[in-house]
Amino acid sequence: MKIALAQINTKVGDLKGNTGLIIRNINLAKEKGAELVIFPELSITGYPPRDLLDFECFVDDNLVYLDKIRQHSTGIAVVCGFVDKNPSSYGKKLYNAAALVQNGEITDKYYKRLLPFYDVFDETRYFEPGKDNLTVEINNKKFFLTICEDLWNDKDYWKRQLYQVNPADEIPKTGIDGIINISASPYLLDKEKERFCIFKNIALNSGIPVIYVNQTGGNDDLLFDGASFAIDAEGEIKGLCGDFQEELIIYDIKNNSGEVHCLSNSQEESVFKSLVTGVRDYCGKIGFKKVLIGLSGGIDSAVTAAVATAAMGKENVLGITMPSIYSSEGSVSDSEKLAKNLGIEFLEIPIAGIFDAYINKIQNSEKFMDIAEENLQARIRANILMMHSNRYGYLLLTTGNKSELSVGYCTLYGDMSGGLSVLSDVPKVMVYKLAKFLNKDKEIIPDNTITKPPSAELRPDQKDMDSLPPYEVLDDVLKQFVENNRSVKEISQKYPKELVQDIVKKINSCEYKRRQAALGLKVTTKAFGTGRRFPIVQGYNFQGD
After folding, report:
1. What's the domain count of the chain?
2. How many whole angstroms separate alpha carbon 543 and alpha carbon 489?
């Protein structure tokens, strides 16, 4: 039997568009001689649909589009994700469901049993968990059908299981030809290795091949790498889709052979491709054709511009440098060189006159040079950028990184302004790695941008290290506190307690800032946004006293 793994890029709520994409891939699978084509989790609605599920009309329409898919199933079996209604008088009103459609009929429905409720996931808010496993028959072959989390409760992999049941333990030992798992598994750096490990263990323990189909693309802050695969009974990958791209590959379960494509070769390549996907899909799905970036001559804006150029095309990117009296010569020259290297449009708009006009109006030319004047410069720049955004229809991309956003080394309504924050979940050390990755074949990021000490350039001779510890130290402390939930006492076993206390205090005191920040693309295990629900006003003492 030839099985098509249809790794598609869906748009949340676009029922017509998603269904059209599914039907096109059904026809492509037929052309390739497939007897079965498998699509990702909730492929009709897109993932995650969130509170769209509260609208009965949305659920009804998704069932209408499932019926359209049914009409195209002649000569091929189709497994796709959709939302079904719970007819019971109790429990949640909906199921996260998979349909088996063949020969013009919906022959089977399966309801997801394990509903994730951690990090960015909130499926228990909407769905009733299924109660039963399902084995389906397709052309005399039997498959054990599952959805995403159903196979993520492996007792041999996790130190602590999240669910009392483990559907993988209930896979029949005989008579099953394959295990199907349809998924919408968000990207995290190195997560594909974790997936391979878990599913390999299931294949080896059951002695049954596993076919895993994940979605690709970006939906809001979540990125999906795809990397769909078929693993045989010996735990070997026999079919593999590339990451961050739409593909349909064929795996022949009888001959145990299939197409194997390449994934990213390094962490830097993986993160870069994820960010490009995030910018491209956010802009494309929301309707922006052009993007705008404030270029400071620093590494963050340079890497953001490179990502934007790869995502949108050089003709659709505008970089504006806005030097002040405190800007270094390299602020302008490095920005101009970057724009030339990327081939993007470039403007220089000095802000010294505007800044003086503000000062003269507000404080009669008396310059105190305190934080208010520093922030004023950032807010002047934001006004210039937003004027261009409004007038010419550009989406303003915010350039701040995770390290700075964590400790509030950024200006609310200033450099935090924008419609999408590209690097908000990328630590500063990784930003430098991305710059070097981009320069592997030729200079894209000017060498001076990489080597010079980072600075906000809002006061004379300002350097980031005047206010922050070395980024290698800061990033490690941030990872331990924000991503791993380590206490001050635990982190202080490696670093001075006073340093850790100061960083943690900054993180917690700036929650109000981050709550007003632009939407950011998620690439780590814990990003600031939907997956970190931290109170703004809270009284817990993290200081380890």
Report:
1. 2
2. 8
Q: Choose, from 11, 35, 41, 285, the residue flagged as catalytic.
A: 41
Q: Indicate if 506 belongs to the active site.
A: no
Query: Given this model, what pLDDT does residue 368 score?
Result: 63
* Phi–psi pair at 470, nearest 5 degrees: -50, 140
Q: What angle do CA 22, 35, 78 make, to 5 degrees?
A: 35
Q: In what order do the strands lie in the sheet with 317-321?
A: 345-348, 317-321, 290-294, 394-398, 420-421
pLDDT tens digits along 338-366: 999 999 999 999 999 999 888 888 876 56
Residue 508 burial (C-beta neighbours within 10 Å; 0-12, 13-18, 19+): middle
Task: State whether 251 and 334 are in the same domain.
Answer: no
Quote the CA–CA distance of 136 and 141 in Å, as a whole number: 8
Sort strands 229-231 and 210-214 into parallel, antiparallel or unpaired: antiparallel
123 is a catalytic site residue: no
Furthest-apart CA atoms within the chain: distance in Å: 86
Q: Which two tokens stand for residue 394?
A: 């550009």
Q: Tell me if residue 268 is catalytic.
A: no
Q: Does 329 have pLDDT greater than 80?
A: no
Asked if residue 293 belongs to a domain, the reply is yes
> Do 190 and 296 belong to one domain?
no
Dihedral through CA 116, CA 121, CA 122, CA 126, nearest 10? Answer: -80
**Is the separation of the CB atoms in 201 and 157 below 8 Å?**
yes
CA distances (Å), origin 470, targets 21, 475, 482, 487, 492: 48, 9, 18, 20, 16
Classify each residue of 140-150 as buried b or exposed e, where b means 16 or more C-beta atoms within 10 Å of its C-beta: ebebbbbbbbb
Q: What is the pTM of this model?
A: 0.94
CATH number at residue 286: 3.40.50.620
- The beta strand positions in 253-289, using DSSP E, are 257-258
| Residue-number span of the structural domain to which 192 is assigned | 2-262
Closest to 41 in 3D by CA, of 123, 104, 139: 123
pLDDT bucket at 269, cuts 50 / 70 / 90: very high
Residues 192 and 116 in one domain: yes
Question: Looking at the structure, do residues 251 and 281 belong to the same domain, yes or no?
Answer: no
* Of 11, 35, 80, 112, catalytic: 112
Q: Is 538 domain-assigned?
A: no
CATH of the domain at 77: 3.60.110.10
Structure tokens at 451: 């080597």
> Residues 258, 250: contact at Cβ < 8 Å?
yes
Looking at 237, 262, 287, the residue that finishes a domain is 262
Residues 304 and 252 occupy one common structural domain: no
Whole-angstrom Cα distance, residue 531 to residue 48? 13
